UniProtKB/TrEMBL annotation, chain D:
InterPro entries membership: NADH_UbQ_OxRdtase_chain4L/K, NUOK/Mnh_C1-like
Listed GO CC annotations: NADH dehydrogenase complex
Compartments in which it is found: Membrane
Native organism: hydrothermal vent metagenome
Protein's name according to its UniProt entry: NADH-ubiquinone oxidoreductase chain K
Coiled-coil intervals, chain numbering: none
Transmembrane segments: 29-49, 61-84
Keywords, in A-Z order: Membrane, Oxidoreductase, Transmembrane, Transmembrane helix, Transport, Ubiquinone
PANTHER family: NADH-UBIQUINONE OXIDOREDUCTASE CHAIN 4L (PTHR11434:SF16), NADH-UBIQUINONE OXIDOREDUCTASE SUBUNIT ND4L (PTHR11434)
GO molecular function list: oxidoreductase activity, acting on NAD(P)H
Stated family: Belongs to the complex I subunit 4L family.
EC assignment: 1.6.5.3
Top-level EC class: oxidoreductase
Gene Ontology terms: biological process: ATP synthesis coupled electron transport
Amino acid sequence: MGLRARLAHLAKTGDVPVFVVVGGGYRSAVHRLRLVEGISIVASPRHASVLLIAGALTNDATGTVSHVHDQMAGPRVTVAWGHPEPSVIPVQTTVNGDVTEVATTIRRLFHDVLSGAVAPEQPLLPDVDAVEWRGVGPYGHGGAGMTGGTPYGRPLALRAPARDNLELDQLPVTVGPWFTGFPPGLALRISLQGDVAQAVEVAPTNLIQAGPAGLFTRALSEPTPIRDLEMARARHHIEWMADTLEIAGVDRLAVRADRIAGMISPGEVDPVERLVKAVRRSLLRLMTLRNVGVLPGEIDLAGLGPVVRATGVADDRRREEQAYRDLGFEPVTHSGGDAWARFSQRAAEAVQALDLAGRAGDTRAFGNGEVEAPDGLHRMGEPDPANRLVSILETVLIGSEWGDLVTTIQSLDIDMETVSVGTPAP
Amino acid sequence: MNPGPLSYFLVSAFGIGAVVSGWLVFRTDSMLRAAYWLMVSFVAVGAMLIVLDAQFLGLILILMMSGEMTIMAIFMILFMMNPAGLNPMTMVHQHRTSIIAGVGSFIVLAFVGVVAEFPDRPVPAGNATVALGEELLGRSMLVFESAGVALLAVMIGAIAIAAKQGRFGDAFDGSEEPSIDVETGDRS
Amino acid sequence: MTAFGILVQVTALLSGGAYVLVVADRLMSGTGSVRTALAYPVRRLSFLLLQPATTTERPDFEAWILGPALLMALAAVGAVAVPIAGPSAGGDIDAGLVLFGAAMLIVLVAVFIFGWGPNSVLPMIGGYRMAAMVLSVGIPFSLVVLTTAIPAESLSVGMIVEAQSSLWFVIVQPLGLPIYLVTAAAIAFWGPFDLPEGADLAGGVVAEASGLRLATWRFARAALMVTLSLMGQAVFLGGYLGPVLPGWLWTIVKTLVLLVLLALAGRTIARMRVQTFVWFGWVVLLPLALVDVFVSGWLAL
Amino acid sequence: MIDILLVVAAAIFGIGVYGALSQQSFVMIMMGLELMLNAALLVAITFWWASTGGNPAGQLLVIVILAVMAIEAAIGFALVTAVYRSRKADITEKLKKLRN
């Protein structure tokens, strides 16, 4: 056995590094995939061997997903999971089953591609510069007009005042739509000075095709059991907590949150409360979330669910539902309006939701065109709250350090499934 | 003390390293490389100091320069016109005069160094670091303390100069855009 | 001891320590069994060796290659300053403490050029963050390390260990070890201070790295942690001094204790914001380190 | 030995002179100055090592040079920042007139 074969033999028993492009309706499923032993979901495509396209994407996504595909170091394979044919880029296999099935498929393909039974995929795009190279020499030294114009084939950075009014260069970059620190599908054009975002613009995207109508969408038109609604709400919030914990670098607690999200039952608030205690011990508030992402007062937050309730306003559609009032429902609120307040708010709402689900019995609520979903008030025929959250990003992110920018976006809980910004990029 | 062949070899090697990396500081177009070539030059001189029995000073020099050169690199990225890294940048003036001055000062100094006779009183065997410590905190305490006070004064002064709100009011009052158009002015 | 002997010793120590660190870190990540954790480093290394290196658009190749190599070299240089087995066992350098300090501060350079190399925005931000971090904790780090030289009246690590024969410096200088561990975690960009490699940067300085480059970088960082633990136990926990067991075994045991402690902190505490960190370094750690210096100096008079 | 050291120091000094005179960017000029100080430092240690019989004042001189380097860097960067703030100038050509 040659060295290569020996290495492959050792490597294929290890974790499979997977980069996931999350499409419509599959965010929750990806949380469950993370719990499977032997699958490791990585943050950068450079580290991955398997590209998993989970859920439906629009045809506009072909370009960006191809980029992600080509960035992978290889040997690479692509798997589609619940992604309709024809898929946005050529895939090795399509799986429509549950988490176990996709995990088995991923493992099998990883084995095969390492041992050579399956040929690794070739790049999809030609390897050319995004902008034509016009410098002289390997690094473009010595070209003319180097104190102005467009050396390097790209315009020189523009100057703009930094926080203390010193005029410095700005680096314009586009981050997303599959950057793991942002909600899937969100791309931002950011002008960076060092690690500070001086200007932010949401890039026009419409990449994610909405999955089948969820429980809360159905509750707009038909009365739905409170127990189901509240369980879904609790699961949503706990999975959101897992994402936040992962970005904050406490993967251990993120895994725990994912585990809890997979096995919650009505009335059982204990595991969630213990998780919140563990989060407190991890100093998350002190280290990362305190005073981050405070929204300016002039922004109208009404109807934005936990985001507005975290500023101390008891704005909740459930108060007006007789069924909820009968259960003695009273909205939880937190004060401060920073990322930590939103975290505590969602944690408390998850506990409250589990408690309500335990006591609700078979009572039904909503069905009259309005519903209080985990991310805020949904109205029949009106855009989801996520659209409003995306539209305020450009104001609230200006002047944030990179880490705060990511924390703020995460704390707003934006789901790009129902958001479409501007015209789709050509 | 008679330096052995190993010392000769090390001093020559580090010496060549220090000169070459010093030269490369002004030959590269990357700001990062310029700053770190300068650091390499300092590290080579630090290594020569270590060979010359000044262990402590050599190491302190290396220690200081790693931080200082990163600050240099960051300032270059801040103040030079293109932060994107490896972009073209040849920015020199009075080139010929500078070359003459540089070569001239090298020739004069090297000539003096080679021709002049210096007393031969080498460092005695023993711990030079201990001697330095006793000097610093004994006879020359005043010098040492003055250096400390000077550094403190500089820290305060530097912040005062660089801060937006200066001693004479806001830095923006009375400022004007530069009058010379560097894009077209060919003066090198 | 010959130069070759020291090389073998340092290599063995750093590799073994790195293995333990990676296994401990994996165990604390919350997934998988002990069995998979024990095999994890080997399997992971095999995979990375199979993975081809990727490149980016017009990277600074020399800097990108030099980063991991420099980091590894610095870990080894720092480890050389610490005597492993006993006073006469070699590896003792006159101004060893300063050598160690210089090597640890140059880590900044290694991380900065590694982040700069790929010509990509997320790694570059990682490099900037490292600069902000090390410039904030560099002074307290150097101060607490050098303070141990005051009671020992020597900058040689061997002499500092010998000076602890009656009482370890962790007791004599109670502020020393905690500050050292915090600043050491920051210099190895580990644990709550892994800002240059944070998840909010999709891996930061390693976001564009793969294959051998990533493997070298990961190993070098683990080796750096071992070096920092090694020095920590030597200057605060009495190094090779201890009853019954031979000196080298004491060194290894104490190093592993600090290593596991750092690994645990890394997995249980959330990542600190950059702004908070800079504040923490200048406003909390620096004054505490100065108190440490003054108290030790006063006691030594 | 002393010849080698002094020639090396002279070469570094010469490069420093060239850099300080030829560069347009303030930061690059400072690099030239730093190189000149680097040479001074090497000369000081050379004489201490070869000709003073181990007089620790020679090492003290190096400490003073190190302090000067730090001061030069700090004041230099502060001035660069101040000038840049008020004139938007980062190279010497933009500062022909030092007065407004």
